[in-house]
Amino acid sequence: MDSQINIAMRALEFTETRCPRTRAKECSCSRVKSITESQQTTVAQCILEHSDKVKGTILLMQAPGTPTLVKGTITGLEPGPHGFHIHEFGDMSDGCKSMGGHYNPDDVDHGDLKEGHVGDLENVMADEKGVAKFSIVAPRVDLMGDRSVIGRGIVVHEDEDDLGKGGDAESLKTGNAGERLACGVIVARSEEMVEAHGGKHTTSGRSMTKGEKSKREKIVKGMKKDKAGFKKRYGKDAEAVMYATATKQAMK
Known about the structure:
- By secondary structure, the chain is an alpha+beta fold.
- It is built from six helices and ten strands.
- It has two domains: 2-189, Sandwich (Immunoglobulin-like); 193-250, no CATH class.
- The protein has a five-stranded antiparallel sheet with strand order 7-3-2-1-10, with helices on one face. The protein has a four-stranded antiparallel sheet with strand order 6-4-8-9, with no helix packed on it.
């Protein structure tokens, strides 16, 4: 009886602390609704975890009525192609295993960027140093609306994705991409985060002038005198927050 009660209590705790849409620890549904209603450029980020070797930072950007741009760098890979997908859940309670299958709201077979699961982002290519730098235009991936991928997960795999052309049942499910090497949850970020990753967009909807960029660098230089304080407060996002704040100040 006690064991049954404990199981029931754990199940209740899970449902109360996990997002019903994505199973992520922190629910982003209200944020997605706000983003959708605002109809502004949306920026999200994913930090790859659950690997001692494979690390990565991925930025996702979408303006209203345009495809989503997925841009990032992954290190620690074996040279060659690696399957790269958005998965259904942002649940990392059991590492990458608990992220479910590829995000597939249309209930179709695995494929490529144009046809297949919405989460099928094909492959990223690692160079001889094991570094994959990529920029993917994903026309069926949304950061806004009911099909927003914010709160869901991203996984990089051990093997090449065969894009559903492998001729077997597993190819039509996973592309035979193999083990999950690293994963992370897609989280919403302020639009200024683009600037911290070398993007062109700012909160004003235009590119910064050379003068403004120079002014921003001076502001950031000043902020870095308190780098320890920023890191303590913002963790991995410390430098991005510096650039975001400096961008606003420089463009006033």
